[in-house]
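Incident log, support desk, overnight shift.

02:14 A customer reports that sequence design results differ from what the structure should imply. Their input is reproduced verbatim below. On-call engineer (initials T.W.) acknowledged and began investigating.
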């Protein structure tokens, strides 16, 4: 489980960085899109950490 600050999560959802579907008051985060987002962020981090 990821430990995220509520405000950080809200900002990511509102800005579109974290993919979500809003169904009434409920927010659903599609699992595959979320995993793809994390994988892309990890790959970008690995690329930038190699370049010094």
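02:41 Re-run completed on a clean worker. Output:
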């Amino acid at each position: 489980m990821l430990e995220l600050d509520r405000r950080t999560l809200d900002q990511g959802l509102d800005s579109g960085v974290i993919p979500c579907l809003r169904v009434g008051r409920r927010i659903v985060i599609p699992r595959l899109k979320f995993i793809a987002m994390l994988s892309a962020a990890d790959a970008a981090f690995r690329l930038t950490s190699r370049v010094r």
